[in-house]
């Protein structure tokens, strides 16, 4: 049993996808802005060692790559109703709930203005309670993303609204028993919602096709990130060779899963890498030209224009804000 600790509260406006990434410093995650325009978002978090509830919203399309923490799992859903979130090969649908188990790599794409919420628990504690409530549903090992059709998600949504309104948690003076009750109540609401849900088997033709496409896209993106981490800019030919896929299929799979071509993804990812370095330069003497060159942008006029189109400000303005 995890001891009850004081609740912590975070309520932070976001002005960059990189800020959205940094605020979740307890989770290995990279967030890339894909759509063009100035970024605005909001991050709210409440919880302690027993649970954590996170609310995220941003006005731009973002792509998230993360590995769920060891020993912890999350249950998430889209708080808005437009079904604008994809988790791995699964698109959100009305009343969907996503179970993301420990140590699993997930690939999430959220459209602009989508708001998501997720609950984080110690996985062994959650599964112990879930199996006590419904042994048959949870008898299998949980080692991949599960999707549930939340037949009656309304009680969880109403409880989530209550949690969203909690304020001034950093100076919370609740008694230990009250905090313990809140901890229990959070897990109970989540488990009751899961227990009243139907496990989505994902065998529909479109899901199976998207799963195949998502596997190829994940391998390609892993390769792209590995090369960029070594400051090597891969070509489409390099990607096709590494993933063992034709250029036509690679294009088709990216469009099906990401909604953009692999070239567009690679280009925007490089612009995001530049932005993260401009926001956190390793040397006060670093220049925009040096950082752009690090990420293989050689035509500086075109680079500056494309950066402006994607982020709504010139790269020089980003660097200037860093030192102000």
TrEMBL record:
Coiled coil: none annotated. Keywords: DNA-binding, Transcription, Transcription regulation. One of its GO terms (molecular function) is DNA-binding transcription factor activity. The keyword DNA-binding applies. Pfam families: HTH_18. The keyword Transcription applies. InterPro entries: AraC_XylS_family_regulators (IPR050204), Homeodomain-like_sf (IPR009057), HTH_AraC (IPR018060). SMART domains: HTH_ARAC. Residues 218-321 form the HTH araC/xylS-type domain. This is Ethanolamine operon regulatory protein. It comes from Methylophaga aminisulfidivorans MP. The lineage of its organism: Bacteria, Pseudomonadati, Pseudomonadota, Gammaproteobacteria, Thiotrichales.
């Amino acid at each position: 049993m995890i001891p009850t600790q004081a609740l912590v509260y975070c309520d932070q406006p976001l002005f960059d996808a990189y800020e959205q990434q940094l605020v979740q410093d307890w989770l290995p995650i990279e967030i890339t802005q894909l759509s063009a325009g100035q970024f605005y978002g909001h991050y709210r978090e409440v919880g302690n060692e027993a649970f954590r509830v996170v609310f995220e919203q941003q006005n731009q399309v973002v792509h998230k790559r993360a590995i769920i923490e060891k020993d912890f799992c999350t249950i998430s859903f889209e708080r808005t109703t437009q079904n604008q979130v994809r988790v791995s090969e699964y698109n959100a649908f009305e009343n969907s709930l996503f179970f993301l188990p420990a140590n699993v790599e997930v690939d999430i794409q959220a459209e602009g203005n989508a708001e998501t919420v997720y609950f984080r628990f110690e996985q062994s504690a959650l599964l112990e309670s879930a199996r006590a409530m419904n042994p048959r549903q949870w008898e299998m090992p949980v080692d991949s993303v599960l999707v549930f059709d939340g037949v009656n998600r309304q009680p969880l949504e109403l409880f989530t609204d209550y949690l969203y309104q909690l304020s001034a948690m950093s100076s919370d003076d609740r008694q230990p028993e009250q905090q313990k009750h809140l901890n229990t109540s959070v897990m109970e609401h989540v488990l009751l919602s899961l227990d009243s849900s139907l496990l989505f088997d994902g065998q529909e033709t479109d899901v199976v096709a998207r799963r195949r496409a998502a596997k190829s896209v994940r391998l390609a993106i892993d390769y792209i990130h590995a090369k960029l981490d070594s400051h090597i800019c891969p070509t489409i030919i390099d990607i096709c060779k590494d993933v063992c896929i034709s250029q036509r299929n690679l294009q088709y799979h990216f469009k099906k899963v990401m909604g953009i071509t692999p070239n567009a993804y690679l280009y925007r990812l490089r612009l995001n890498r530049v932005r993260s370095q401009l926001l956190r330069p390793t040397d006060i003497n670093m220049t925009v030209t040096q950082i752009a060159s690090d990420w293989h942008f050689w035509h500086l006029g075109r680079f500056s224009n494309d950066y402006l189109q994607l982020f709504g400000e010139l790269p020089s303005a980003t660097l200037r804000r860093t030192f102000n």
